[in-house]
Amino acid sequence: MADTLRITLAQLNQSVGDLAANVAAMLAVRESNPDSDLIVYPELMLIGYPPEDLIMKPALIERAAAELEKLAKVTADGGPAMLVGSVFVRDGDLHNGVALLEGGRIAATRFKYELPNYGTFDEKRYFMPGPLPEPVLFKGAMLGLPICEDIWHPDVCRHLADLGAEIFICINGSPYEIDKDVLRIDGVAKRRAIDTGIPLAYLNRVGGQDEIVFDGASFVVGPEGALWVQMPDWEESVVTTVWTQTAVGSGSRWRCEPGVDHELAEHPEDIYCAMVMALRDYVNKNRFPGVVLGLSGGIDSAICAAIAVDALGADRVWCVMLPSRYTSQESLEDAEGCADMLGVRLDTVPIAPAVDAFDVMLAPVFTGKQPDLPEENIQSRIRGVTLMALSNKFGPMLVTTGNKSEMSVGYATIYGDMNGGYNPLKDAYKTTVFAVSEWRNTRRPKIGLGPDGPVMPQRIITKPPSAELRPDQKDSDSLPPYDVLDAILQGLVENEKSVDQIVAEGHDRATVVRVERLLNLAEYKRRQAPPGVKLGARNYGRDRRYPITHGFRTGT
């Protein structure tokens, strides 16, 4: 029975479905921490989280079981035990669980009780809930092992406390959302610790996985609510915490010695880091050599170029200017200035020859019609085809640059500026784009590979946004001012408010009704948009899943 425990928290990135890579990462941590008593890994570390329908392949389940047995045998060497998240089959049911590997065997398993089934989560599609878990005895300490969602409800921790748990170790796959770190610590973990009088170690994964990104930011809180350990966000980190058993009255209590105390990214750096890490892992894990994107001289493409450079380095980012007869000299200068500041390759491919060809080709059927939206969209689609040609020919993934405000109301051309393999701004409203651009132009993110100084000419941020598809075009010709539009969209999309509720907040009814109409009409476009990182509570695709065809409206 020990009076001191060394528990190593391994905040790691994961490769969904790549069991060999995940096992190698776990063993590397174990090898580097031979004096640890117990090494803890994030939720579903063995197979990666979230596995989605990959989990329906029996071969994956079988391989996971075999790999877990191999990992267990490693602990026969007398070194550190391991807490490994994986999948388990019991009585024909599949469970999300955790195994204690100790002494060369699987010493204990515990299963997730609360299965999240909202927003990005649909675990009830795959797993059955386990029974309320019992504590696990490890070197004289009674460990309670709630898994992620289990601590968002009081029942599991209270049950474990009633059965004698002395330390909670909670493994997680908790995706980033704005203000999620505060909610995890103050709104959830501290409450469970204070309610039960039991300290809680919270271990989260880090890294991007398709449309979600994990920020890490693991921590340990004490039974009085004190923050004993704060691990960094947005990077892998391995921290060994030291726990001692001290006398309290007639009994004893485990306490964690105060350890690392990293400062977490504040707004809007956290948003920017989310976009950087998501793009980095998407490109690298899918084995693209780099990215290509259209650099227009506008703010959306400029900040996307900066994100790409911070994610991958300037040598893996290729920017292309695609001017038309409506492209201003100012835009040409700003695109060149942005490329120079970022240190990226910039090529220019004028689209006038292709536009002229389409004019000639369509003249017989467009006879008698004035140039309008179709001619504007042709320019955008020519740009999309051109960029895809470069991607196909040379291999870099095409980054698309539309923001959430535009995607919400359909101010984007399907098969044109929506072309691409990934969109860093998909869940960023235009006002967020402005805020992030202002921030990045004066600061470098903690995980960035780009320059310390400005990444775009200040004029890109201050000039009125324009698609430049017709003479003297401005976004404000077609849309309300972005501060107004984004406030309405926040109500309609993020908060599911009705037109009447938003009008009551001071907005013009005709404007709100129009925005609601455009939002509904653009659903078919969003279904065909590339993936992009989730930033808020209601991103398109994983969170907000509306039918394309429906007749419900909240305003007239």
Can you describe this structure in just a few lines?
With 556 residues, this protein is an alpha/beta fold. The protein has helices at residues 19-32, 58-74, 154-162, 180-196, 269-285, 299-312, 329-342, 352-366, 373-394, 404-409, 430-440, 458-462, 482-494, 499-504, 509-521, 523-527; strands at 4-11, 38-40, 81-90, 93-102, 105-111, 136-138, 141-144, 167-172, 200-204, 206-209, 212-215, 219-221, 227-230, 237-248, 251-256, 291-294, 317-321, 345-348, 397-398.
Describe the fold and architecture.
In the C-terminal section; belongs to the NAD synthetase family. Catalyzes the ATP-dependent amidation of deamido-NAD to form NAD. Uses L-glutamine as a nitrogen source. Its EC number is 6.3.5.1. This protein is an alpha/beta fold. The protein has helices spanning 19-32, 58-74, 154-162, 180-196, 269-285, 299-312, 329-342, 352-366, 373-394, 404-409, 430-440, 458-462, 482-494, 499-504, 509-521, 523-527, and strands at 4-11, 38-40, 81-90, 93-102, 105-111, 136-138, 141-144, 167-172, 200-204, 206-209, 212-215, 219-221, 227-230, 237-248, 251-256, 291-294, 317-321, 345-348, 397-398. Helix 6 (299-312) packs across helix 11 (430-440) and helix 8 packs across helix 9.
